[in-house]
Amino acid sequence: MQYSPLLEELISKLQYLPGVGKKTAQRMAFALLGGDRRRGEELAAAVNAAMSGIKRCSCCRNYSDEDICPICSSVKRQNEMVLCVVENPSDVAIIEQTGQFFGTYFVLHGKISPLEGIGPEDIGLDRLETLLSERKYTEVIIALNSSVEGNMTSFMITKLAQKYNISVTTPSRGIPVGSELDAMDESTLTYSFTNRKNI
Amino acid sequence: MQYSPLLEELISKLQYLPGVGKKTAQRMAFALLGGDRRRGEELAAAVNAAMSGIKRCSCCRNYSDEDICPICSSVKRQNEMVLCVVENPSDVAIIEQTGQFFGTYFVLHGKISPLEGIGPEDIGLDRLETLLSERKYTEVIIALNSSVEGNMTSFMITKLAQKYNISVTTPSRGIPVGSELDAMDESTLTYSFTNRKNI
User: Using one digit for the tens of pLDDT, what is the confidence trace for A94-149?
Assistant: First the structure.
């Protein structure tokens, strides 16, 4: 059936959201229309405010309402001379949840991919080099996902850090804490045995 | 972690959508921020336009951009003296997809539920009675889902229709076309055997 033009438009635009197909969009549209309409208006206002108000922190490139994000502007965190390089803003959120990292971040918003035409400037490596040259970091933690592109990006950042005599680390990989041996895939198990540690 | 206020607001308001929890809302928010921001603005505009522009057809109570919806204002459909009563606007959409019904609809937007304080006026039964008294319908199809509330609502509509000597029908229930006998639940099988038809 053809819905009314306004309803068609709503259903089509809701499909901009990730993981939302036509069926889900229809369900969402009917829920918005059938419920308190002010909720829909609040949703629209929040989307609009976020689209125009959230920019990239000019220091770490993480999403921020201000020109410099709260983490970068915190003196306490600036004094920790450890920089953690991540791929996405969501990675920052997840690392912050652990409450175990007190340094600052640098967000790439992607990884190097010659096939997709994503070069060093697109992920801010020029900006990263400026940071590394200006501040006396003692350590750079490269927390990227392991993939061909991730490893390539990791390699380039390692080179950059070495140029300024900064030690480079990466989070350990292996069997997740609490997991059973027999639930592990072969590659993880192979890796964790090859990289076994003294107790 | 605490997100920035604008991002927190976006994530919280996205959870107004049905089936969207915190994790999904975060993923949606990051997708909107990371993609073309115009898409987010288009989504917000579509939601706003729908919230303020979509009302209930003053004839059948289905969602409509106009005062009278296209189905109710179609002379061809007005001439079919069959009225189909459904619970939700989505039911109209799904019946229209079959292309087999040529009459008009009446949308209840709910069912009678004394427990939730939903009475006959809340689902427009007064408006339905006016319709039944004014137009010379030959048949009312009651297409509600079967539940205690659905059956109660169905009973009241049947009484109304009988008052104006209109015959009442309901879509047949039984084994879905193409389904296997051994895939059926006991109640459906019991029902379809009790209500068997001559071939």
Answer: 999 888 999 999 999 999 999 999 999 999 999 999 999 999 999 999 999 888 99
Question: Looking at CA atoms only, how far is residue A198 from chain B in angstroms?
Answer: 33
Number of domains in chain B: 2
Domain stops at, among A53, A71, A92: A53
B163 lies in the same domain as B79: yes
Q: What is the pTM of this model?
A: 0.82
Yes or no, beta carbons of B37 and A51 under 8 Å apart:
yes
Say whether residue B67 is in contact with chain A using an 8 A CB cutoff: no
User: Mind telling me how many Å the CA of A117 is from chain B's nearest CA?
Assistant: 17
- For β-strands B104-107 and B63-64, DSSP reports them as unpaired
Domain range spanning residue B40?
Answer: 5-53
**Domain check: are A10 and A42 in the same one?**
yes
Residue B159, both tokens = 């009484």
Dihedral angle over CA of B143, B92, B14, B48, nearest 10: -140
Tell me the sheet residues that pair with A107.
A86
Among residues A59, A85, A82, which one has the least CA distance to residue A167?
A82
> Which pLDDT tens digit goes with each residue over B87-103?
999 999 899 988 899 99
Tens digits of per-residue pLDDT, A38-95? 999 999 999 999 999 999 999 999 999 999 999 999 999 988 899 999 999 999 999 9
Taking the CA of residue B64 and the nearest CA in chain A, the distance in Å comes to: 6
Residue with tokens 């306004």: A6
Name the pLDDT band for A155 (thresholds 50, 70, 90).
very high
* Domain-ending residue, one of B13, B29, B53: B53
In this structure, the number of other CB atoms found within 10 A of the CB of residue B47 comes to 27
A68 interfacial to chain B (CB closer than 8 Å): no
In angstroms, the first-to-last Cα distance of chain A is 66
Residue A70 contacts B, CB cutoff 8 Å:
yes
